[in-house]
Amino acid sequence: MARKTARNTRGRIISAAWKLFYDHGYENTTVEDIVFESETSKGSFYHYFEGKDALLGTLAYVFDEKYEQLQQTMPAQMPAMEKLRYLNHELFAMVESSVSLDLLTRLLSTQLLAKGEKHLLDRDRTYFRLLRRIISEGQSTGELTGKQTVNEILKAYALWERALLYDWCLCGGDYSLVAYTDSMTPAFLERFRG
Prior knowledge:
Blueprint lengths: L1 H23 L6 H8 L3 H7 L10 H15 L6 H19 L2 H13 L12 H15 L9 H21 L6 H14 L4
């Protein structure tokens, strides 16, 4: 029970921080604002994070929360290719509508400069576990090719999504991320059709 409470406290802090970052900007959000919004204490905040900058690496957690929600709403009988397109569309719609370009750029740059933990590459994340399951199911039904391993397809798919996010940031968000991914991801996925 203590582990779940700790995870919930940490999660509330992260969720509150990203909401505030989006609403008021990273620079205009203080630790005190985050503590108030998350209904926690400064002690709890500093138990989990060294400071506000440490929260930049937690966007992967926010993404995983979204994937956990999507798992609950995604029809089990949906074909694997459709599931991959659905997840891609829904996450990128969330990114485009509720994660500021500045924050996403900061996150991606911190991951490039990180010497230790690279949250986006953590194979234990909900993201990777969910994709691994979908790809395995797709291979077992013959919908996805068996010429590549699950991990090879998973790596290519994750790389594709990161490339889209990096390009969108590099271009300053001057095009619709959702419209672009909706038009290009099906063609990318075709190479893995069984």
